[in-house]
Amino acid sequence: MSDLSWLSRTTLLIGDENIQKLQNAHVLIVGLGGVGSFAAEAICRAGVGTLTIADGDEVEASNRNRQLPALATTQGQYKVDIMAERMKQINPEVQLFTQKQFLQPDQMVSLLNSNYDYVVDAIDSLTPKLMLLSTAYKQGQRIVSSMGAGGKLDPTQLRVADIADTRICRLASDVRKRLRRLGIHSGIKTVYSREKHVDQALMYTDGNRFKKSAYGTISYLPAVFGMTCASVVIRDLIGWPIE
């Protein structure tokens, strides 16, 4: 029989029945950068029994200001491998599946063939993000999507809202418009910020055909996005109201 004593404080808060719901759940997290790595760890620490994590990137020096797997000693290692080891250290009994590759848009369909209880979208490239969201939506999967955490500083500006109700965030605007072209107008939960971007923090990138630009980031804000995504997943799984 599983030893759930490590979840005693969580049980005190939400009760045995809800702990069992989390133990029986399977959550997919796509993207293990500043947002996704914190979301994945928080979901694991909450006691979710089965996790699939997907990311094809290796740790780079520039990741260390915000990403959980990024240390001076882990540079060049795959984020998926680092996070998988962390999760096993947190909960040795977790059922863990990994996808260690950059997911092209057409691969999202096969990734979503499993019947997940929740999907976390922490992708920062627009085309793969849209493919994940539209595929999950059409399959009836529950999903929470993180919008842009770059170019911002104020965590108190974060909101949880349907994609149709997002405002100010440029990534949310692009996602919303393109989903509408696919016939999707609402029904996707998002975590976004109402803070305006710091425009001078924008830089243009090369080497990734799906991501032409990026904003500068601060240590804590992507983590807050990830933790908020995790909270949506956990509260939905146990039937806790989300205001």
From TrEMBL:
Signal sequence residues: none
Name of the protein in question: tRNA threonylcarbamoyladenosine dehydratase
InterPro entries: ThiF/MoeB/HesA (IPR045886), ThiF_NAD_FAD-bd (IPR000594), Ubiquitin-activating_enz (IPR035985)
BP GO annotations: cyclic threonylcarbamoyladenosine biosynthetic process
Organism the protein comes from: Xanthocytophaga agilis
SUPFAM superfamilies, per the entry: Activating enzymes of the ubiquitin-like proteins
Domain named THIF-type NAD/FAD binding fold: residues: 8-240
Matching Pfam families: ThiF
Source domain of life: Bacteria
GO molecular function, one term: tRNA threonylcarbamoyladenosine dehydratase
Gene3D superfamilies named in the record: NAD(P)-binding Rossmann-like Domain
